[in-house]
Design a protein that fits this description.
There is one protein chain. This protein has 13 helices and 12 strands. The chain is of the alpha+beta class and 418 residues long. The protein folds into 4 domains: 57 residues; 46 residues; 142 residues, Ribonuclease H-like superfamily/Ribonuclease H (Nucleotidyltransferase, domain 5); 88 residues, no CATH class. Strand 9 and strand 10 form a beta hairpin. Helix 2 crosses helix 4, helix 6 packs across helix 7 and helix 8 packs antiparallel against helix 12.
Length: 418
């Protein structure tokens, strides 16, 4: 009997105690059945089983027997083969989704995890103690605050050069609002992504970024200029506030999204054998749709804060363009970006000598020159050398990759000579 009790579960011990209480007359069968949450007839069957076999009669007869819902060995072997062949570095949740989506196998996440553990494809991570940061409440409305960041990474796992993913994510809903692949994290890449944001959703009230030189002037001894970067001037023209975070943890929503994207997006592109920025960019809209269906939450205020863009695409491109002034020579010429230009006029053009013209440089490299808000026709007639642009820690890898790619193949791997 003692051995039988040792094999009993906690609920079975409680059941045996109440049955003995009822048999000894200390408790009515109705009261005992109510405490167990079962009917009186079922309790009477328990009493009969206890009178016949004692406490052992109350132990489930299914104990030690295989479940009727147990997965067949053939199916387990098939899933194990797929996990090793296609999803070796997938987490259990993502592997479960792909087994259902691509292989039409419906299985629980925990079952996949157990199979992965058995195959030594997954092992629990040891969590280190982390510094605790006070959580900030989400903004109530979609479009009040868009967190933005760039994620330089080997997105194609060696199938193409390293590049950067520009990420725009809404603070209120964790909804991805814009994604764009770019060779490097640059102001142009952010402006192109901002265009996608405005055309798709409208102008948000504010953007939340880090303190990179793209977003703010970090030189302490800067004495000239207006104290704004080109990106800062653009968002000001669009009537969007730009807020710089003090720490990466302050914009934790986009930082966590970057980590998840570096896991899920990479594996989605691997399954589709996507090996170029162009193909990846074409895949992003469908990926964003699935992401938002899975991870986005409802805002506390249903009224969106985005302001729809009611003007034309050309007007938006003009606002996004880099703006610089140039002074025309007596021959109505000026230089810009390593090229010499001549303004074409229908008359002699003497009134424009020494005039200040405004040069708009679009993100795709095209120029649009205006004088007193009137567009001017140009002719390029010469070039001049310009120094290479300075690089920072976010563009250095791309510059080195370009140098390596341009180096003669014979030089690669040649031995060093003293």
């Amino acid at each position: 009997m003692a051995d039988g009790i040792l094999l009993m579960s906690g609920s079975e011990r409680d059941r045996a105690f109440l049955v003995r209480q009822a048999v000894e007359g200390r408790l009515s069968q109705r009261e005992a059945s109510e405490r167990l949450g079962i009917g009186v007839r079922q309790f009477k069957r328990l009493v009969r089983a206890w009178r016949c076999d004692g406490d052992a009669g109350l132990v489930s007869r299914q104990r030690g027997r295989p479940s009727h819902r147990r997965m067949s060995e053939a199916l387990r072997t098939r899933i194990g083969g797929l996990l090793k062949a296609k999803y070796a570095d997938f987490g259990a949740t993502l592997a479960t989704e792909k087994l259902l989506e691509l292989d039409e196998l419906k299985v629980s996440v925990e079952m996949v995890r157990r199979i992965q553990i058995g195959l030594r494809l997954w092992r629990p991570k040891t969590r280190r103690a982390r510094r605790v940061f006070q959580l900030r409440e989400r903004r109530p409305r979609f479009g009040e605050l868009i967190q933005i960041d760039g994620s330089p990474h080997d997105w194609f796992e060696g199938r193409a050069p390293r590049c950067t993913l520009i990420v725009f994510i809404d603070d209120a809903t964790s909804r991805l609002t814009a994604l764009r692949f770019a060779p490097v994290e640059s102001g142009t890449a952010y402006l192109d992504t901002l265009r996608d944001q405005v055309l798709t959703h409208g102008r948000p009230l504010a953007l939340y970024s880090d303190r990179h030189g793209i977003f703010r002037v970090n030189a302490k001894d800067a004495e000239s200029g207006d104290g704004k970067t080109e990106f800062g001037r653009v968002v000001e023209r669009l009537d969007i506030a730009l807020i710089n975070a003090l720490t990466p943890q302050a914009k934790g929503r986009v930082e966590r999204a970057n980590q998840t994207l570096q896991d899920r997006l990479i594996k989605e592109m691997r399954l589709r054998n996507i090996s170029s920025i162009e193909a990846a960019q074409a895949f992003l809209p469908s990926f964003m749709l699935k992401w938002n269906e899975k991870f986005a939450v409802e805002p506390s205020d249903k009224v969106a804060a985005h302001r729809p863009w009611a003007k034309t695409n050309d007007e938006l491109n003009l606002l996004l363009a880099r703006r610089e002034e140039r002074v025309l020579s007596k021959a109505l010429t000026f230089s810009y970006g390593g090229t010499k230009y001549c303004v074409k006029t229908s008359g002699p053009g003497t009134a424009m000598r020494g005039a200040r013209v405004l040069v708009h440089r679009f993100t795709d490299g095209r120029l649009h020159v205006t004088y007193k808000e009137r567009a001017l026709a140009l002719t390029a007639y010469g070039t001049y050398p310009v120094p290479d642009a300075a690089v920072d820690e976010k563009t250095l890898d791309a510059r080195i990759d370009a140098i390596v790619a341009a180096a003669p193949a014979a030089d690669a791997g040649s031995p060093l000579h003293p």
